[in-house]
Amino acid sequence: MSQGKLKIIHYLNQFFGQIGGEEKANIAPLIKEGPVGPGGALNNGLAGLAEISKTMICGDSYFSENLAASRAEIKQMLTEEKPDLVLAGPAFNAGRYGIACGNVAEIATELGITVISGIYPENPGYDLFKQYAYFVETGDSAASMRQAIPNMIKLVKSYFEQGGKLGSPEEAGYLPRGVRKNLFVEKRGSLRAVEMLIKKLKGEQFETEYPMPVFDRVEPRPPVKDITKATVALVTSGGIVPKGNPDRIESSSASKYGKYSIAGLDDLSTAEYQTAHGGYDPVYANEDPDRVLPVDTLRELEKEGKIGKMHDHYYSTVGNGTAVAAARAYAREIADELVNDGVQAVILTST
Amino acid sequence: MVKEIERAGLPVVHVATVVPISQTVGANRIVPAVAIPYPLGDPKLVREEEKLLRRELVEKTLKALETNISEQTVFA
To answer: How many domains is chain B built from?
Structure first.
């Protein structure tokens, strides 16, 4: 850089890259000169210290559906540009975007480039890629952009000012990366452990040095013994609803789910069904809702005796930035009903 | 959602395009789908071919539901 400023490459999806909404989610990676979208505010905040020289933009669907190709292209771009730092997002609670940012971070890390990003902790991109980036914690939607940008700027500044080093997650203001670092301390381990134990016994606050991972896994259920006798239910997070969306399920951050009868129905027609989902291009699902909820095929298999019965109702919600706690609550209610109705197996489709 | 339904005692097969997300959310039986906006279809195919593709996928889900597994399994 001519002014000796540090060079930053910024990664954005098609939406924040100002290319377009879900209808443009299929664009391949491309490069724009200078900052774009949220890059403007980041660049201004870093003025005098660093500069966003180029912005990489890729469609969210393109990225997840062409992972190897996208990764190769991004690797090539980063190899050619040799930035001092990569910024990605912030991705908030957008799942595909978070995973794309995480992939960018993984590639950059392989090339020895540090990545600073922003993400909502429930975004699967965080859990999958936390060791590759310093993620600032953001809210679940772009409404929290105003807090996210200054936090990212702050982290970038401390990173450069401290010569490429950042303190602990708590000190520096990023989400834990699950990375362990060796350091010297005065007291030996046994003493620290006993002190912690005493605090715990007294009911006092203490800070663990090794947080136990939280594994919330459910054991796989035994298989269906004879699927040709079983009642199979369809559930979707792809937002398939009767035309007009009678329950008004929200296109994102859904606060409810719907239960709809498909008794005797052979096919989800475009005249009577649609998607309420706001997180993917709805054209294809509206053209033929069976592409998301395969009622036609399952009915066919039922008639041929390949399954016992297709359950008379299907359940639908919109999985788009929906809070995990909300999804859990819907699923519990749905599961209770399905069990009570004698359903033996579930096909759950996601977009 | 997959996990909560399975917790209630029902085997669930998750049809999803982004398999890593499905694994992260804790689905045990996973069938990879075609694409995000059309997991069980393909607008590029003619109608009959598309129906055939969907049928293959749904038959795969039934096979998954009949398969005994001890850990997360992708039925590709």
So the answer is: 1
* Residue numbers of the domain that contains A155: 6-172
pLDDT tens for residues A242-284? 999 999 999 998 889 999 999 999 999 999 999 999 999 999 9
Tell me the β-bridge partners of A134: A116
Our count of domains for chain A comes to: 2
Is A327 domain-assigned? yes
Residues in chain B with CB shorter than 8 Å from the CB of A281 are: 37
Residue of A nearest to B54 (CA): A297
A292, B22: Cβ pair inside 8 Å?
A: no
**Residues A277, A142 share a domain:** no
**Chain A residues with CB-CB distance to B59 below 8 A:** 301, 306
**Strand pairing class (A313-316; A134-137):** unpaired
Q: Which residues contact A146 (CB under 8 A, 6 or more apart)?
A: none
Q: Which residues of A touch B14 (CB under 8 A)?
A: 348-350
Q: CA torsion sign, A309 to A315 to A320 to A322? A: negative
> Which tokens in the block code for residue A333?
């209610």
**Domain ranges, residue B43:** 2-74
Q: Which residue has the tokens 């490069």?
A: A31
- What is the per-residue pLDDT across A134-181, written as a single tens digit (0 to 9) for each? 999 999 999 999 999 999 999 999 999 998 889 889 889 999 998 877
A277 touches chain B (CB under 8 A): no
A11 and A154, same domain (yes or no): yes
